[in-house]
Amino acid sequence: xxxxxxxxxxxxxLTLRTAxxxxxxxxxxxxxxxxxxxxxxxxxxxxxxxISMSDYVYQGIETKYLFLRNYKSEKYDEPVNLSIVWxxxxxIAFHAPESCLGGVGITVKEKTTARVKLHDNKYYxxxxxxxxxxxxxxxxxxxxxxxxxxxxxxxxIRLHVLAKRLTFRRSSASFVRVMIPIETDYKTxxxxxxxxxxxxxxxxxxxxxxxFITK
Length: 215
Prior knowledge:
Mean pLDDT: 85
Oligomer: single chain
Low-confidence stretches: none
Helix content: 25-40%
């Protein structure tokens, strides 16, 4: 009797698993994240102030889970502008950060990366923009966070989501963006954003990571 090739069996198993995965996500309800709206206004000496957004912003972003705030600390002269957007794994629709900023009259002058520390002495390469807003140069840092996986690549987001889906686990992703005017010099602006990102990282996890919001 002729043996069934191992590769053929693997293809069948993967095909059946993918079919089950597709059928399952077709019937799953969206994840709800009520903890997102409890993101604190006071975080270790940083005081937040809500910035209102028009309805068309929510429609363009395609999620109700977003906010825009200024956070001020007595240690620094300038407030940090913070924006966080959250999606569950059924509806991930992040836009390119430079496109979003350009849509509100901000001119992007430079796009590169920056190495920052977020937690436990771990460093990550995240997105960096130099933009012009209100006739001033501003420093922008941003990243995507898929339940602890930090990236600037939207294709990486989808791969992480797919990997969890293939094991029938839910996931979610958030976009974190901070911005500050470059008043004195670049280093002063960068150091403040670095301090702020370290401060909010554990807070962001508690309000956006799937394991936390589904408890």
